[in-house]
Amino acid sequence: MFLKISNLSKTYSNGVKALNNVSLEISNGMFGLLGPNGAGKSTMLRTLATLQNADSGSVFFENTDVLNQKEEVRKWLGYLPQDFGVYPWSTAYNFLDHLARLKGISDSEDRMNAVKEMLERVNLWENRKKKLKTFSGGMKQRFGIAQALIGNPKLIIVDEPTAGLDPAERNRFHNLLSEVAEDVIIIFSTHIVEDVKDICDSMAIINKGKILANGIPGILISEIEDRIWEKAIEKSELEKYEKDFKVISSQLKGGKKVIRIYSGNQPRNDFQLVKSTLEDVYFKKLYEDELEKGS
Asked: Please, how many CA atoms are within 13 Å of residue 133, restricted to the half-sphere of its CB?
């Protein structure tokens, strides 16, 4: 399976350019869309999910024109938005059964089996008779995952899916997506670097509507190997170091600021070479993007 996004652009009425000529090619497996809040991730996903129109560009899933054949796309699309709403007075079983009907599972026995299997996979079978208004935030998120996966969709879009999940639920969710990712395309939008690092085969970094990087996480990390240096400084020294070096990130540890800088050579003998990470790739790309906008 293959999804091709070409020159996709969207500007809102308030002048915000949410998507700026975005082009991506995505094949089977987990694709991570990584970016800060307000980067354009949700706009892109809503467009792919046929919920809003683009100003220009094209999207094709195999031979289907996603932007112009919306009803066809919805037959094989699974979508979990960032804010997933439920009918509060419905039980988990009844609502998922209703959604399964909408996904085209018309046979009652097939639908019963599909609903049962999916509620078991997200660890909600024991809660199937409870009204959705009684669910905790994490339970609602797991139910949202179930509705996105039911009906064997070919393209699955999930927007910030680990929000509200505890570590055990997060791992269960990652495992669940990994199980189904071999034969479908899953686009996984997040601002959490670890989510992408743990489960995604390929990825893109987006900021302010523009794609800053695109590729396989391991290769992107290797491209900055032996170029990340670390040093602990006093908090009051941060501004000075930011003027003198390419500080891509800083973190407070034990009362000190630990800075990481990008450099092809050891900046000074008090800097220590450290192993590069996907987080370094992410912060470097954001740093360079801000630098370009400021120039």
From this structure: 4
Reported as a single tens digit per residue, the pLDDT across 94-113 is 999 998 988 888 899 999 99
* Pairing state between β 29-34 and 202-207: parallel
**Amino acid at site 227:** R
CATH architecture of 2-215: 3-Layer(aba) Sandwich (3.40)
Q: What is the rounded distance in angstroms from the CA atom of residue 277 to the CA atom of residue 19?
A: 27
Those residues of the chain that have pLDDT short of 70 are: 85-86, 163-164, 294-295
Minimal CA–CA distance to 266: which of 290, 220, 230? Answer: 230
Helices 137-149 and 108-121, interaxial angle, to 10°? 140
State the number of CA atoms in the 13 A half-sphere of 15 facing the CB: 0
Q: Where are the domains of the chain?
A: 2-215, 222-294
CA distances in angstroms from 22 to 9, 59, 100, 144, 195, listed in the order given? 7, 10, 33, 28, 22
Distance CA 4, CA 101 (A): 29
